[in-house]
Amino acid sequence: MQLIREIAFLLHKELTLELRQKYALGGILLYVLATVYVVYISFVKVDPANWNTLFWIIILFASVNAVARSFLQEHSGRQLYYYTLANPIAVLVAKILYNFLLLLLLSVLTLGAYSVVAGYLIRQPVPFLWAVLLGSLGFSIALTFVSAIASKASNASTLMAILSLPLLIPILATVIRLAKASFIPKAGVMIPIKSDLYILAGIDMLLLGAALILFSFLWRD
Amino acid sequence: MKNCATFGPHMIRMSKRIFLLAFLLTTTLFRGMAQTAPGDDFMRSMGKMYVVVTAIGIIFLGIVIFLIYLDRKLTKLENQTKHND
Amino acid sequence: MIIKHGWKLLGVVILIYTFIVGLLVPLKSGILEVSPQSVQPGRNISFRVLGYNTHYLSGEIRAWLKMDEEYTLASSQILIQNDRELKVIFGIPRFLPTADKVQDFTLLLDNEVDGAHLLPSAVFVTQDSINPAMGRLEWPPERITDLHEKEGITFPFRNILAETIRNTYFHVPMWFAMIFLFLGAVFYSGRYLRSKRSVDDFRAFTMIRVGVLFGIMGLLTGAVWAKNTWGAYWSGDIKQNMTAICLLIYMAYFVLRQAYEDPDQRARIASVYALFAFAAMIPLLFVIPRLTDSLHPGNGGNPALGGEDLDNTMRMVFYPAIIGWFLLGLWMAQLSFRIERLKERLLENED
Question: Domain ranges in chain A?
Fold first, then answer.
């Protein structure tokens, strides 16, 4: 109970901080718009298979940029303050939840902007929804943890990209395959998505478990 | 007697392969230089045996590169100890 | 002394065994090529057959074209050219006992020395007028009996693999050794986080170093093998991709180590990353490849190691080969580890 209250408090803190400094959110929004427009200019007409792949690649890079700030941008003094007050697990879970919400928002924004310029090609929303949900969760867990790993290095943001991109490839590959089911024209025909869903949920759980166990070794400094 | 009859050709093939192994690198080098056509025909001769030879060569090279790497590290350490003395 | 160094000796002895047996045991007899490959029914056709490791001059040869368990056609005449070449003449009836337009046949040869050997889908017969009922009449029931077995220890012959089947003892164990070394690194990383002794971190670090080397050697040997069997160095096969990603993840580990100056902080963060990276790799190595189509055996519905690609004779070399290469890898990692430890001691003395 104590843990949940701590998580809720920390999550609330993250959200208020984020809303106070509006340029951060605005920056991500601008990043998404710029990337989508670059994609539009380079491709002009996109068929469903490329639509899907490009969408997730935009999300991938936007996520790395968005989450990178979660541990990198905090003053070490303030960090120390939290850590003396709260349970490390609560700190990590709050960050993961916050980044999860951020990535969901990011996905919605990207989907909107992307649909405007490249067309809305989704025929069956259910697999795509699952892909966005579980994919954002997986990205958020992996990226939050990696940003904690990279945060104390001198060239943290480069390190963050090097460390996280290969780690995200399994999630990305599964998500793209899962989302493919959304581009089948007939609404009646469902291609089986169960195994991909299980794999994705399994990867998320695995990463979450590893992150929770290992985080307590990271923050003590 | 029958055993002998079946074993004879195997022996010839075996000695052929020992020869092959012994001249593993030199043969590859020489044939590679002599041949102007793409290497496929050569790689696929003798039942594609040279594919195995190349694989073993790659592993051998990998281990040698590792040895060179260790050697350089050790040299550095040795130089450091000399400074200390 | 013996216990301390015995495992290195064991590794070397096993590898010597692997090299000797793996390279010297001959392949079974097989058929390399049959021409023409595509024929029409209703005439006598002479096929040129190229054998591999065959001894056609030594004894009576029999030949069949086999459609399925029921329908088989014996050759009408066999002309022996030399030990590795035959001219086999089949009188193919006017109609085939099938409603398909194109039917593939397995060529089966048998003699006393080489034993029975065959080439699946060796000949394709294209029939213009289809009449299965007539076909069944024209194909007399034929029984294949008294097939011989090749004597002695042999490895199986696969048409596109030929001698490269021996790469099973050199290419495949690279991957296994890599995984075992990474597992060792996981063990020592975990131990470091408990003990905080720098030697544990060095052990993990050097094991990853050798593991990555083995991974690269596995990729390169695989590329050469793939070029000469599948036709391209890089076919984008799932296992190639997964190994490449795996190597990227562990190369990032080296970059991470470089990024931290303080030895304790570096060791702690590197250990945490090694554990997290391995967790992230589990689906990459063990789940996703099994669900995707692959050219490798053991994936996407192909029979796993076993079945026809790995027979009992090969197992007797393959399993020891894995242990041998792994022990060699451990030895290499240990040498590297001892150098790292020495370096640390020297630095301590300087201070």
Answer: 2-219
C-beta atoms of B40 and C228 within 8 A: yes
pTM of the predicted structure, to 2 decimals: 0.85
CB A6 within 8 A of CB A90: yes
Provide the β-strand partners of residue C104: C124
Q: Which residue carries 């991957």 as its tokens? A: C175
- Contact (CB, 8 A) for A110 and A180: no
Distance CA A215, CA A19 (A): 27
Domain ranges (residues) in chain C: 30-138, 162-350
Q: Which of C262, C280, C271 is nearest to A143 (CA)?
A: C280
Q: Do at least 3 CB pairs under 8 Å connect C with A?
A: yes
Q: Is the predicted pLDDT of residue B10 greater than 80, yes or no?
A: no
Query: In a mutagenesis test of the C interface, which of A134, A203, A215, A220 is the best target, namely the one with the most C β-carbons within 10 Å?
Result: A203
- pLDDT score recorded for residue A126: 84
Residues of B in contact with C25 (CB under 8 A): none
Report residue B25's pLDDT band, with 50, 70 and 90 as the boundaries: very low
Residue A117: partners with Cβ closer than 8 Å, 6 or more residues away? A36, A37, A39, A40
Of the pLDDT bands very low, low, confident and very high (cuts 50, 70, 90), residue B81 is confident
pLDDT of residue C351: 66
- Tokens representing C6? 């015995």
Hey, of A163, A191, A193, which one would you mutate to test binding to chain C, going by the most C CBs within 10 A of its CB? A163
Structure tokens at A43: 């491709």
Point out the residue among C152, C217, C229 whose CB comes nearest to the CB of B58: C217
C209 to chain A, closest Cα gap in Å: 17
Q: Please tell me which of the candidates A154, A199, A218 has its beta carbon nearest to residue C283.
A: A199
CATH number of C30-138: 2.60.40.10
What are the C-alpha distances in Å from B79 to residues B66, B75, B76? 20, 6, 5
Q: Facing residues of C49 across strands?
A: C34, C86
Neighbours of C (≥3 Cβ pairs closer than 8 A)?
A, B
Interface pTM, i.e. ipTM: 0.88
| Blockwise average pLDDT, block size 10, chain C, 351 residues | 85 96 91 89 90 88 87 89 91 86 90 89 87 83 80 85 90 94 96 93 96 96 90 84 91 92 91 93 79 66 48 90 96 95 86 66
Cβ pair C228:B51 closer than 8 A: yes
Interface test mutation site (partner C, options B51, B70, B82, B83, max chain C beta carbons within 10 A): B51
